[in-house]
């Protein structure tokens, strides 16, 4: 009997700005996988806009999850994104423990900060809770800032890290739970690097040309495609290459449109390229 794969998407729902579930769901669907939404919050626009409305779903999540339990839902993958509080992290940790089966792939995108700084809403308690999520993850997709905070080490000067240091950091992170990781968005001149690490294998560095500047939701696009490809059965290396290639194409088109940075990536033009 045929089985259509399913991924639970644990993230906020933002009405405008191309981020979080608003980008993850169409990308997962384009990969012929059913996306199942577990909302952490509902926002009118993302927090990069000067004014926004937010409805925090922390209080509603346990009842929402209980309904999934009662209906005996099962997932081939679970992808987590931005979590808004320590309590929410506890709820998500319990959700993963309840729903993770032997074949379920858990991909944690530890959205915590960038360029050496935590996001304003992030607290040290939330950092500790994110470290706990690593214990149930199969794959994590941190940037350098997030990797440093997860390991509780200083951010390197000007964000530059030697290959030996990267391997040491990756090994330390996988010792905390996940067997695979990709350190994203490392800078090397006119290139961005993705550092692909799997326990028991030699690390791999994938390079892509820098295009434009940072845009909201880019990490969500990347993580969604990585998660989808892994659930499809692709290797981590293949998944990262697919995600980086898609982001690059979308970035070129978005720059041509001259969209404001808080409008995210104009990825819709390339959805049919995904299989």
Brief rundown of the structure:
The protein is of the alpha/beta class and 275 residues long. It is built from eight helices and eleven strands.
* Low-pLDDT residue spans: none
Biggest sheet, open or closed, and with what strands and sense? Answer: 9 strands, mixed
Helix/strand/pairing class, anyone? alpha/beta
CATH H level, superfamily name: Ribokinase
Name the CATH class: Alpha Beta
CATH architecture: 3-Layer(aba) Sandwich
Assign the CATH topology.
Answer: UDP-N-acetylmuramoyl-L-alanine:D-glutamate ligase
Q: Give helix and strand order, one letter per element, not per position.
A: EHEEHEHEEEHEHHEEEHH
What is the count of β-strands? 11
Q: How big a fraction of the residues is strand?
A: 15-25%
Helicity level = 25-40%
Gap between N and C termini, in Å? 21 Å
Rg computed from alpha carbons, rounded to a whole number of angstroms = 17 Å
Number of separate helices = 8
What is the molecular shape?
Answer: globular
In round numbers, the mean pLDDT is 95
Strand order of the largest sheet: 3-2-1-4-5-8-9-10-11
In total, the number of domains comes to 1
Written overview of the protein:
With 275 residues, the protein is an alpha/beta fold. It has one domain: UDP-N-acetylmuramoyl-L-alanine:D-glutamate ligase, CATH 3.40.1190.20. Helices cover 37% and strands 23% of the residues. The protein is built from 8 helices and 11 strands. The radius of gyration is 17 Å and the shape is globular.
Outline the secondary-structure elements.
Elements: E1 6-16, H1 21-30, E2 34-45, E3 54-56, H2 61-70, E4 77-80, H3 86-99, E5 105-108, E6 113-114, E7 117-118, H4 124-133, E8 139-140, H5 144-151, H6 163-174, E9 180-188, E10 191-198, E11 204-209, H7 218-232, H8 236-257
Parallel strand pairs: 1-2, 1-4, 4-5, 5-8, 8-9
Antiparallel strand pairs: 2-3, 6-7, 9-10, 10-11
């Amino acid at each position: 009997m045929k089985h259509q794969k399913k991924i639970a998407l644990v993230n906020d729902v933002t009405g405008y700005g191309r981020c979080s579930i608003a980008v993850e769901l169409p990308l997962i669907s384009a990969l012929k996988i059913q996306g199942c939404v577990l909302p952490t919050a509902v926002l009118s626009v993302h927090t990069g806009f000067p004014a926004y409305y937010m409805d925090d779903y922390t209080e509603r999540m346990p009842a929402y999850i209980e309904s999934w339990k009662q209906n005996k839902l099962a997932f081939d993958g679970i992808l987590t994104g931005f979590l808004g509080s320590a309590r929410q992290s506890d709820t998500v940790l319990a959700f993963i423990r309840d729903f993770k089966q032997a074949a379920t792939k858990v991909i944690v995108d530890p959205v915590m900060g960038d360029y050496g700084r935590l996001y304003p809403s992030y607290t040290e308690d939330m950092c500790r809770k994110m470290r706990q999520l690593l214990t149930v993850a199969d794959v994590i997709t941190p940037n350098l800032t997030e990797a440093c905070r997860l390991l509780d080490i200083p951010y390197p000067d000007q964000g530059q890290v030697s290959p030996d240091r990267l391997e040491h950091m990756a090994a330390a992170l996988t010792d905390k739970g996940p067997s695979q990781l990709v350190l994203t968005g490392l800078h090397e001149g006119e290139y961005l690097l993705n550092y692909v690490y799997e326990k028991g294998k030699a690390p791999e560095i994938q390079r892509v040309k820098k295009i434009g500047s940072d845009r909201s939701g880019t990490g969500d696009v990347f993580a969604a495609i990585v998660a989808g490809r892994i659930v499809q059965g692709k290797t981590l290396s293949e998944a990262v290459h697919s995600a980086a290639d898609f982001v690059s194409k979308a970035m070129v088109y978005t720059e041509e449109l001259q969209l404001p940075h808080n409008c995210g990536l104009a990825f819709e033009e390339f959805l049919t390229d995904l299989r």
